[in-house]
Specification:
It is built from 5 helices and 37 strands. By secondary structure, the protein is mainly β.
Length: 590
């Protein structure tokens, strides 16, 4: 039976139909059907076909309709992220004047809600190539926009307080030269952007900057393996807290290589060698992700027969193939892979042309299961199988992958669509049921606080894990520790300060919620400042010993400070205790 050019679900139905036909047509030598069940088998197989069809309709669910501001206008590049179980999508779309604007929407379960207006710095300048990431509970979007003399500038904004706030100025190393192909990644404490920049002379270069202290700081120099070679398609991800970048570097018109570098110890270091399966072939569009133990990279690569998708993982100092190629038909054309890792499961989306010139480009999704790439639900995902897709993007949390893409409509214009696999409800975020009250402590006095177990809850019944940082995402001070398993803060304050502390509860499936509380550290009424100068030093010890030895008298206020142990008497016990504290033998005073 000829299955060439058919979708996987069509092949399944044809196989079931063939089984049905074979059972109906099979007869014994006596002229009757075997087991007397031919018709019953046909009916059974028909029921199986119907069941398969019902399943196919239920597994991938489209989230609303087109995300476009106007379905009659062209949308282009698409990027997606998940936060709190909700997908966030950004894309570029022409407005009524034909100027490309950047937009962001999130899906709440009731529909798509737009976050603010256009992100463009200048609404009269084209903006393209948006990329979105989440860090410390905030959405960040990077994009390029035409500026003075039509030179494209790279910008980043954060969604805060119901509006998009720009982070610094243009990131370009040289604002007189074009920046393009931005890729952004974030953690609770760091924000990184990689991009390609066209210098005044020579080949394009890849650069990376980190947002630190309210400004953009460049990490090292260009990442190019050979600064004289043209590069494309940088993609950045975090692995073990360090930025890793994959890209395509061109050797000849028919040969290019995929490389990966990581920033560690203040420099960019290459991971392994060339990733290509065949180093003489042309490659492109790498996508990098991490499962916490290893970085993974997916890319497209030409072969003698077509173009396929490959995936490799960096382990024991080398790049190793993962699960073979996920491509449906290796004789045709696969491209634009988008890779995500949910827990320990790699999931990949890509587009593939079944028969060049005969069928449109189709969107497929597979996950790595038992060492093999398996289709996730019914594929392809096209809203209209007669139309082509481009710019596939994927995110996943809690075992629920979500895919966004551009699909060309008959005008032809591009519309942005999103589908989610599994339940329409998806994973729900934890909630704050009892806000943590503000806390206070005294310098030098041990502090401990355990917030109640019912402070947070999860509507899906998921077990929660807890983490704590300062409210701006930075680490807790060194003297203060937090144990998530017991929900306990502890430590000995070392100075007067007012802190804002954020506790985050995470459900293990990508959804979280945070609550912040104030923490005031005061000097308190610590005794021992005998000379009343605001500090406790060896001078206070000397003064107290002289008083105890009858050499001098103390005022009533000084005597109150000299009664270190608080027993109502000023004696040698007080002098000894104060001396031990000043010399560091005693950690604190009563």
């Amino acid at each position: 039976m000829e299955y060439r050019g058919r979708t996987p679900e069509e092949v399944t139905l044809l196989n079931v139909g063939a089984i049905a036909g074979g059972l109906v047509g099979a007869r014994d030598a006596g002229g009757g059907t075997r087991h007397g069940g031919g018709w019953r088998c046909f009916v059974l197989c028909a029921v199986l076909v119907a069941a398969l069809c019902v399943t196919a309709k239920a597994d991938w669910q489209q989230l609303g309709g087109s995300l476009n501001q106007d379905a009659g206008r062209d949308a282009q590049e698409v990027s997606i992220a998940i936060h709190g179980g909700e997908p966030y999508v950004t894309w570029s779309e022409e407005d009524s004047s034909g100027v490309a604007q950047i937009y962001v929407k999130r899906y709440t379960g009731d529909g798509w809600i737009q976050l603010g207006g256009s992100l463009n710095v200048d609404l009269e300048k084209d903006a393209t190539e948006p990329d979105i990431a989440f860090g410390n509970g905030s959405a960040y979007v990077a994009w390029v926009e035409r500026g003075v003399s039509h030179v494209t500038q790279l910008y980043v904004k954060r969604y805060s307080g119901g509006a998009w706030v720009q982070l610094g100025g243009a990131l370009n190393v040289d604002t007189g030269q074009h920046a393009f192909e931005p890729s952004i990644t974030a953690s609770d404490t760091q924000l990184y952007v990689a991009w390609t920049e066209n210098p005044a002379a020579g080949a394009d270069q890849i650069y990376v900057k980190v947002y630190a202290g309210g400004t953009w700081v460049q990490l090292g120099d260009s990442l190019n393996v050979d600064s004289n070679r043209q590069i494309y398609n940088p993609d950045i991800a975090l692995h073990e807290g360090e930025p890793h970048v994959a890209w395509r570097e061109v050797l000849t018109t028919t040969n290019s290589h995929i490389y990966v570098k990581r920033y560690t110890g203040g420099a960019w270091t290459q991971l392994g060698g060339v990733l290509n399966v065949d180093s003489t072939q042309d490659v492109g569009f790498p996508s990098i992700a991490s499962d916490g133990m290893s970085p993974y990279v997916a890319w497209q690569e030409h072969t003698a027969d077509g173009r396929v998708i490959y995936v490799k993982r960096y382990t024991t100092g080398a790049w190793a193939a993962v699960g073979g190629s996920p491509t449906i038909d290796p004789d045709e054309s696969s491209s634009s892979p988008a890779l995500v890792i949910d827990g320990l499961t790699p999931i990949i989306a890509w587009r593939e042309t079944a028969d060049v010139g005969e069928h449109p480009t189709r969107l497929y999704v597979k996950e790595l299961s038992a060492g093999l790439w398996q289709l996730v639900g019914t594929n392809p995902l096209n809203v209209d199988p007669s139309l082509s897709v481009s710019f596939p993007a994927i995110a996943s949390a809690g075992g629920v992958p979500v895919v966004a893409w551009r699909e060309t409509n008959p005008l032809p214009m591009g519309n942005v669509y999103v589908k989610r696999h599994g339940s329409a409800v998806g994973n729900r975020s934890p909630t704050v049921d009892r806000p943590i009250p503000d806390q206070s402590a005294t310098v030098g006095i041990p502090f401990a606080y355990q917030f109640p177990a019912d402070t947070f809850s999860d509507p899906d019944g998921d077990d929660l894990s807890y983490a704590a940082t300062l409210s701006d995402g930075s680490l807790l001070p060194g003297w203060l520790s937090f144990t998530g398993g017991t929900r306990t803060f502890s430590g000995v304050p070392i100075g007067v300060v007012t802190l804002s502390i954020k506790v985050t509860a995470e459900d293990g499936r990508g959804a979280d919620v945070s609550d912040a509380f104030g923490f005031v550290i005061s000097q308190g009424a610590t005794r021992g400042d005998v000379d009343l100068d605001g500090s406790i030093t060896i001078l206070d010890v000397r003064l107290l010993f002289r008083h105890v030895c009858g050499i001098l008298a103390l005022s009533s206020e000084q005597a109150g400070q000299a009664d270190v142990d608080g027993d109502g008497d000023v004696d040698m016990d007080d002098a000894t205790m104060l001396a031990e504290y000043v010399l560091g033998i005693r950690a604190s005073l009563p």
